[in-house]
From TrEMBL:
InterPro entries, sorted: Glyco_trans_2-like, Nucleotide-diphossugar_trans
Organism: Hymenobacter fodinae
UniProt keyword Transmembrane helix, yes or no: yes
Top-level lineage group: Bacteria
Keywords in alphabetical order: Membrane, Transferase, Transmembrane, Transmembrane helix
Domain Glycosyltransferase 2-like: 7-101
Protein name, as recorded: Glycosyltransferase family 2 protein
Family: Belongs to the glycosyltransferase 2 family. WaaE/KdtX subfamily.
Lineage start: Bacteria, Pseudomonadati, Bacteroidota, Cytophagia, Cytophagales
GO molecular function: transferase activity
A Pfam family annotated for this UniProt entry: Glycos_transf_2
Record-annotated membrane-spanning stretches: 217-241
Length: 253
């Protein structure tokens, strides 16, 4: 059986710092690369085109909608979805090639190893952070509401596992982490509101943030990652508080 043709799809918005690294790592694995861009104002589109990607402009409607749209733009049914700040390691590249040569599942998960402010994070619940990213688009779709989108295969379909890591270059600074946290907690609060979970108590505002820190820093061994582990655990706990605080003020409005 010949290798299945693979489309790599990437959604972008102002990713000029990351996109070249991502695209260069899929050479030899991708039979085509599609970048679905949300009208970037930097050089993302130019860099993508220079490196051989086909660029499609599409206004951002939400992560689920954007990734389903990007999947639909692929020429091939076998798709690898990546974020612009992710890079395939050689081990993962080889594992994807093995899957292409002997496709057996509706989808495959891969592990992500995150770089936080220059340090690789292996604890605190951040690794292996498995995501289903390689899939036959005929057998599933992206699902979710506003945040935490996920790819779901159809009922009864099997999921395989890829060896190797995708290197995830997340935050260059604590300031960047906090800025994104503020944006994501607003989206998360809105999602809770839409799901009808509008009651906020001291449990949500005090105990859940404390547990988030303790669980990540101690039980999930975040302290072994040094400053990165402490920063992640602290900011993550703050994020839990912000999410419910925003929900409470929304409910009171």
């Amino acid at each position: 059986m010949p290798a299945v043709p693979l489309s790599v799809v990437i959604i972008t918005y102002n990713e000029e710092r990351n996109i070249a690294r991502c695209l260069e790592a899929v050479r030899g694995v991708a039979d085509e690369v599609v970048v679905v861009d949300s009208f970037s104002t930097d050089n993302t589109v130019t860099i993508s085109q220079q490196l051989g990607a086909r660029v499609v402009q599409h206004a951002f409607e939400g992560y689920v909608q954007q990734k389903n749209y990007a999947t639909s733009q692929a020429q091939h049914d076998y798709v690898l979805q990546l974020d612009a700040d992710e890079v395939l390691t050689e081990e993962l590249r080889q594992s994807i090639q093995v899957a292409k040569n002997n496709w057996q599942h509706a989808g495959y998960t891969l592990a992500r190893l995150t770089n936080y402010c220059g340090s690789w994070v292996r604890h605190g619940g951040w690794y292996p952070d498995r995501k289903l990213r390689l899939y036959d688009r005929r057998l599933g779709q992206w699902e979710g509401l506003l945040l935490h989108e996920r790819y779901e295969v159809a009922i009864g379909q099997s999921v395989g596992t890829l060896a190797g890591d995708a290197l995830h270059y997340s935050y260059d600074s604590v300031e960047q982490h906090v800025q994104q946290l503020n944006r994501f907690t607003s989206i998360a609060a809105e999602e809770l509101w839409l799901r009808g979970k509008q009651r906020v108590s001291v449990f949500h505002l005090l105990l859940k943030p404390c547990w988030k820190f303790v669980h990540g820093y101690f039980f999930r061994l975040g302290f072994l990652d040094g400053f990165a582990g402490l920063s992640i655990a602290t900011i993550s706990a703050w994020g839990v508080f912000l999410k419910f605080a925003k929900l409470k003020t929304k409910a009171a409005a």
